[in-house]
Specification:
The chain is built from four helices and two strands. 0% of the residues are buried. Helix 2 crosses helix 3. A two-stranded antiparallel ribbon has the order 1-2. By secondary structure, the chain is mostly helical. The chain has helices at 24-30, 47-59, 64-79, 88-126; strands at residues 9-13, 33-37. Among the domains are: 43-83; 88-131.
């Protein structure tokens, strides 16, 4: 009685009703085999939750039941902190890549400020800058 409690599949042959007008091929089609799961659970959900389920199960290309089962196992593993963490080498490599990316951004900002500074100095030397024009008292 306390044996295997996991959901196993059992092949069940559906009964067919024989009619005198049925051909042999129709009888074969009606005697199809279906798999039956041992456990069943019904649930109610709000329409927006059902729409959410339909959207994401379609997005992942799964049936709704399969999506719910996968999501349930994923959530339990996440709550138990049973998920894969990268190895120390991968973590260090990711850290170094982030540091290099930060250095690239910092270098771009430094380059931009140096170019702007030299442009301002050249403008003052040539006299093209509005800051060195003589004022005549007019506000135009």
């Amino acid at each position: 009685m306390a044996g295997n409690t996991s959901a196993t599949k059992e092949v069940v042959s559906l009964p067919t009703q024989k009619k005198p007008s049925d051909s042999v091929s129709k009888q074969k089609k009606q005697a199809t085999l279906r798999s039956k799961k041992t456990g069943r659970h019904n649930m109610r959900m709000y329409p927006e939750d059902h729409n959410f389920l339909v959207y994401w199960s379609d997005r992942f290309g799964m049936e709704q039941t399969e999506f719910l089962i996968t999501a349930m196992y994923h959530y339990v593993k996440w709550r138990n902190q049973d998920y894969e963490l990268p190895t120390a080498e991968i973590q260090r490599l990711n850290q170094m890549v982030d540091a290099i990316q930060n250095l690239v951004v910092s270098n771009e900002h430094l380059e931009k400020s140096v170019v702007n500074g030299f442009d301002a100095m050249l403008g003052i030397i040539r006299g093209d800058n509005y800051l060195v024009e003589k004022e005549d008292g007019e506000l135009s």
